[in-house]
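Inputs:
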Amino acid sequence: MTTLFIDAVALWAPTLPGWDTARAAFRGAGVPADPPLRRPAPELLPPAERRRAPDTVALALEVASNAVAQSGHTAADLASVFTSAHGDLGITDYMCRTLVDAPTAVSPTRFHNSVHNAASGYWTMATGCMQASSAVSAFTHSFAAGLLEACTQCVADERAVLLVGYDIEASGALACTTASQGLLGLALVLAPARGARSVAALAWSLASGPSAPVPLRTAAAQSLAGNAMADGLPLFEALALEWREPFLMPLSATLSLELRVSDPWA
Amino acid sequence: MPSRIAPVHVRAYTATCALGVGKAALLAGVTEHRSGLRPNTFGRHALATWVGQVDGLDVPLPGPLGHWDCRNNRLAWRGLQADGFLDAAQAARHRFGAARVAVVMGTSTSSIGATEDAYAQLDAAGRFPADMRHPEVHTPHSIGAFVQDALGLEGPCLTVSTACSSSAKVFAVAERLLRLGLVDAAVVGGVDTLCGSVLFGFNALQLVSPEPCRPFDAHRNGINLGEAAGFALLERANSASGALLLLGHGESSDAHHMSSPHPEGLGAERALDDALARAGIDANAIDCINLHGTASAKNDEVEAALVARRFPATTHASSTKGFVGHTLGAAGIVEAAFSLLAIETGLMPGTVNTAVLDPLCGPQIRLRPARGDVRRVLSNSFGFGGTNCVLVFGRGDAAASGRAAP
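Outputs:
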């Protein structure tokens, strides 16, 4: 197994709007937000842009900026991988509805925000980051696939990488086939070497053979399981619960990431 | 600057686009200097423009692949049949085992055409028709998962969707997987098909030309959309002399604007520098450039300036968008195929449709095809969101020469 270091962790969901709250909830403490928040308001964006940003962009930038703020790294120096199973389902619904009867009425802004790398684009613009940034997708294994890509970049190029996973709720007619509930944003800053802010060591390797996701252990994590980014939750539970046993995170029906979280200072 | 990487062997490649199916059709188009564009008749509301359309996509996918059926996956399936690519992928599967072969596909809109079709046929309850409720089709990873299923592969599988750099970035993803020994081979590629979203989306941005597109022309007035499928099979290189190689890749971000390039091309230049550094060469060693060259006012202005300031006058640079249109998420792989074909044949494409070069262009940008000893080719792919990817391809015997001074 190869070992990397996690220099920051972030999570945002309407009921658990931040890693401190989520970590406490996963550990059986803390109080979920009531009523749940509608969406995050990332301070990284100026107020007008913050209001106009698509839900996916607001969500991704919230967890990305929270993770980087804790990590001790400078945003402009970080490579980034943005992963989402479905991208902005609200914009997809809007585009498809509009194209049926009034295709020439398509909004140019909504169109350029419809690209899967919109969050990556807004992140690099907001932070002045000219490093490589990617946007990937792998259906029900999107967090795992993004994590593999981020780990690979981190090791191959010996550089710190920001990983951001996010999905939102399916809306409109698309909801009859696409399953995703609520909002869930996850982020990690991965580094090739231990730093002063490292919160965990992460050992990883590929494991082939029939895969099955680790059942979520806590009611708080189970409450987020309907979101299309939920395949990442076992890692966030492991980080919160300081769970040290190796576990599998499926990349497909026949391939997994084998992961083990440990104390970076041990 | 990144360190030099070990070259990656491009064991097989293919592309299917408006010029036809496979490499022979590409080569015929380049040789005859003939555009594959045609007046648009695509869709229920046909936008007045020209497109690079692929014929013969009316046949549904065969039996066990039927649940993947949509225009984008049909084009992928058609593309996989060309140039013996299916056999090459199967051979890699036998050689290394299914779990040791990755699939990394690029796309901009994947199967969204199928989602658009479903919205046009909603039932009384506002739901998709029952036979169109395939969740695995109405999602960006449709293309990656379909190709993996069609090839019977079981290694890591990922869809990269960074607009028009998507299927250039797949080479970088695969190179890293190979370098770290996580896989022994990778099928990379890109597929995008004509659909309402991109035709009317680019139209809304006033970027679509009603005429055949004219990259780098002084009177260019916008892009033509195209569709294409392309694939390459990558493995770690041994010493095979004459083998086609991926020598380098560079990725960067503009950090400037969602739908307009950095005015000084700083993001693109950064990707160029990284690609050259990974290849261990300098710009003088590049014989030929496949430009992004979309025929949009701004892209071509910025890219022409970059080429003029960084490359010698002897470098042959051209845009192939006039042959096939802008195939968006498939542009990277189609242009990789044009680049590899130039190395194999010595024939460097011209810039079809363009009559009068913009005075911004340096002597590098050529309208006519030319023959030469093509040892190293650079391919540019830039996209919305300010994403940039530059690739360098070469020949086995070219990898060792042309190094930058230490």
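Remarks. The two ends of chain B are 13 Å apart (CA to CA). Chain B is about 30% helix and 20% strand.
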